[in-house]
């Protein structure tokens, strides 16, 4: 029996002949995202008694972040968890995450994930038009600047340095406003770019810095917490809707539990990673004072003037109102 385009029963699938969900991501297995993706796979296996198998491809091994979105749209992978700014190609509002000092703390970010403004991004027609369905937000953490040339303490210290950026005009403007240059480089190629001096610096949550071993190729890190790096889970809509209803219920239950797992994991893993970075003994960590952060925040105000309309006042003010 067919129901709304999807098969009503998953009887044809067995542990020997499972339905396969391909899940591609770019970070290390032991990263926040890597651990949560594996947790999701484990929960799906348990709940469906092996009838659905989530194949997780970490570390850009299947697709890097230049092509994972295209791979999702074409159905070559079924599920991705990109850093949300990578969605700029589909909807520029996802760059909300890059707006300097927009989020106060982790609790503020969590409130946003549960808010109507966040749902307005997830439910946007732009995703559906690309056969994408937005499923959930997963946190990582605040980004911090690092580089190889000098300690970053004051705004002037950024002048003339070149940083790796993820994607999009907001990050480009952020660096330009600080008098620095930037280059868009795929996450999987960032270690080599730092090592070879293609760029001097980067901005990462502690956990990405740690699990990618960027401490091997960076000398200075400042605890700037100037922006966020968070994820959203996206699936190929046609594929998702073709999953038999009884199995889909269990898969979505697993995703809800994996989301809670990611939320509980992120802050702790980032705190542990900061300790690892300090213990590595090879990176000079500058703990930024509130005054130094305030000076950065003020210097970065022009980014709001330039991009406030693109990100939309509804979204920016909506996020600010959740503090
Ligand atoms: C990045 O490019 O820095 C991020 O996409 C990495 C991540 O955490 O996915």
TrEMBL record:
InterPro entries: DctP_fam (IPR018389), TRAP_DctP (IPR004682), TRAP_DctP_sf (IPR038404). Keywords: Signal, Transport. Pfam families: DctP. GO terms for cellular component: outer membrane-bounded periplasmic space. One of its GO terms (biological process) is transmembrane transport. It comes from the Bacteria. Belongs to the bacterial solute-binding protein 7 family. PANTHER family: C4-DICARBOXYLATE-BINDING PROTEIN DCTB, PTHR33376. This is C4-dicarboxylate-binding protein DctP.
């Amino acid at each position: 029996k067919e129901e709304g385009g999807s098969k009503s029963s998953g009887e044809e699938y067995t542990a020997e002949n499972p339905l396969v969900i391909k899940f591609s991501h770019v970070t290390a297995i032991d990263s926040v995202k890597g651990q949560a993706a594996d947790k999701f796979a484990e929960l799906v296996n348990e709940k469906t008694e092996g009838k659905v198998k989530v194949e997780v491809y970490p570390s850009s091994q299947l697709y890097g972040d230049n092509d994972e979105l295209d791979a999702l749209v074409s159905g070559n992978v079924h599920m991705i968890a990109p850093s949300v700014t990578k969605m700029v190609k589909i909807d520029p509002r996802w760059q909300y995450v890059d707006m300097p000092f927009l989020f106060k703390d982790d609790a503020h970010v969590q409130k946003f994930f549960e808010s109507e403004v966040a749902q307005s991004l997830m439910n946007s027609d732009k995703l559906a038009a690309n056969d994408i369905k937005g499923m959930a937000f997963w946190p990582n953490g605040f980004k911090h600047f690092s580089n190889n040339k000098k300690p970053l303490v004051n705004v002037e210290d950024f002048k003339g340095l070149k940083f790796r950026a993820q994607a999009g005009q907001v990050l480009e403007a952020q660096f330009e406003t600080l008098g620095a240059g930037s280059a868009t480089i795929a996450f999987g190629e960032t270690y080599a770019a730092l090592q070879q001096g293609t760029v001097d610096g980067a901005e990462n949550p502690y956990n990405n810095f740690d699990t990618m071993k960027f401490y091997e190729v960076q000398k200075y890190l400042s605890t700037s917490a100037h922006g966020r790096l968070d994820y959203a889970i996206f699936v190929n809509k046609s594929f998702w809707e073709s999953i038999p209803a009884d199995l889909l219920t269990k898969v979505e239950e697993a995703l809800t539990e994996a989301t809670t797992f990611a939320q509980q994991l992120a802050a702790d893993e980032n705190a542990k990673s900061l300790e690892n970075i300090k213990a590595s003994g090879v990176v000079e960590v500058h703990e930024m004072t509130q005054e130094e952060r305030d000076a950065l925040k003020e210097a970065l105000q022009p980014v709001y003037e330039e991009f406030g309309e693109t990100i939309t006042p509804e979204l920016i003010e909506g996020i600010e109102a959740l503090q």
